[in-house]
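Field reference: "sequence" (input) and "structure" (output). Example, Drug/metabolite transporter (DMT)-like permease:
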Amino acid sequence: MKNSRMSLWHFLAILTIIVWGASFVSTKVLLNAGFLPTQVYLLRFLLAYLILLGLSHQKFYAGNWKDELLLACCGLTAGSIYFIAENTALGLSYVSNVSLIVCANPLFIMIATGIFFAGERLNKRQITGSLITLCGMILVVLNGKFILKVSPVGDLLAFVAAIVWTVYSLIVRPLSLRYPTLYITRKIFFYGSLTSIPVLFATGADIPWRAFQNPIVAGNFLFLGIIASLFGYIVWNKVLKMIGTVLASNYIYAVPLVSILCSVIFLRERMTLVAILGAALILCGMLLAETKKK
């Protein structure tokens, strides 16, 4: 029975990664429709927050000011700082650079967790699987294009995004032992939305509301707000608690694989043999890292 429950959480982790990988395509559709990156992020978080507020509104403040501050940090690291840094980096640097840096954060999480949480340190087999998965992720992101150029500001912002997600992964784990998942997720949406409002007015508050008359735009927005944000964060916070921060974060390596598959299907982009080899390495590495040794 215990193994069946753990398998369920691993399955939900994979499902969340599939949703988050597909969200890159939905975001690109909204950007092409005239939305700014900050507008896309704020609208999807606000929608998720309002829905979650209707489902869970009995408790507004944490048990003490320290936990409230930690929840605010979660909103910053998993919300406004992460998305604003990543989206800005995409505008200043190359997509391959940003993807490689941001999606390498499981390595940062593995190192940081090993330092602060001795009970979650990986063994040699899991470390080997993680490194194989990392190599596969690099091949998928490059997709046969081995020309990488340095863009200092953009690459630095991508590195900031990877670091703040690592901080979020470390903070939310102990909070999940004291507060319900719905409550933590609602606070993340609240503080993530609140702290992004100044950036919205600084970059452009004129939201193209008429674009929502297009069913494709409305559908992608609902997907980002309800599925990618509301469903994704609720499930992911629970997954971190159930299977551990390091093993759960190892699934993040598969985000570029899902993104490129969705791009091939919906945007008709090209996938090379190098990316296919990378996909095989990702799957092999994840199986090696996630499967317990008997």
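The longest helix spans residues 2-32.
The chain is about 80% helix and 0% strand.
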